[in-house]
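Worked problem 6 (solution included).
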Amino acid sequence: MTINLQFKLVKNITLRIKETGDIFLTAPVGMSVSEVQRFLESREQWLRQKLQLVLQEQSQQKQDPKYSMGELPFDGQHVWLWGKRLPAYFLLSSKKHGTYEVQADAVCFYYRSELSEKARCAFVEYFYKQEISGRGEQLLQAWEKKMGVHHTGLKVHRMKTRWGSCNVRTGGINLNTLLACWPQECLEYIVVHELAHLHEANHSPRFHAIVERYLPEWRERKKMLAVFKPL
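Solution. The predicted structure is:
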């Protein structure tokens, strides 16, 4: 093991292991190297165990696939819909070009001429957008009646930093296309969240009290939104 040793104007000796696996030891000015060595020997077992855990976690992170918000969840063979990973079949058909069909265990995409990889991705994004447009509008109409507000229109598009937004001046609602990949409970939470802004524009305690009143389980939904990854 390599120890990065520094002597500083401190009272106590400290030992730290960073996420990278680097080991840092800070000792008081005036402490001898032999004293530092004895301290390390007394902490050797703890140090080795801790280092092993850090390196294991580091290895696991390299193996685990990651999802970045805004990234289209499509590997060429599967799509995600309401929290489920479904096979995607692209089929030459006499049906109208660009139509799709959601079945119990798959999604079929119909086309009349060969599709490039880029065109297939665009088709899948259109599919997500249509699903959010339909289900999102249903939820907006149902919840605005309960909450005593009225939205003036819904726009759906892919966003990299937010799941939805509300124009409190016009009453317009924006929803992230990719919410179609998450469980429907997540979409419902975002709908309630954005409609609550028609009562309270900011994220004040009053705003959260409104969300709590209509959707008591909003914290669980918010956590689900953060934890779920369409990989």
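Discussion: Residues 6 and 26 are 5 Å apart (CA to CA).
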